[in-house]
Design brief:
Length: about 70
């Protein structure tokens, strides 16, 4: 079951939130004129912290989005 999401607000660092907070956060960002990418993650928060950055589709997607914003 997908428990957490990685939410990437435009121009900011990725944020890991639970499923309920995802919609509230993304709605707020878009109302302020921002863009959001939401990646459903079938891991617990601690697992995401441990795994994100290692070779994986999620890491590739997050890094590609960050590069599109001019972030390292």
């Amino acid at each position: 079951m997908i428990d957490h999401h990685i939410v990437i607000p435009f121009g900011r660092q990725p944020v890991i939130v639970n499923k309920t907070a995802t919609h509230a956060l993304s709605s707020k960002v878009t109302k302020l004129g921002g863009q959001v990418v939401i990646l459903p993650v079938d891991m617990k928060h601690g697992e995401i912290n441990k795994e994100l950055g290692l070779p994986s589709d999620y890491t590739t997607t997050v890094e590609a989005f960050m590069r599109s914003l001019g972030l390292p």
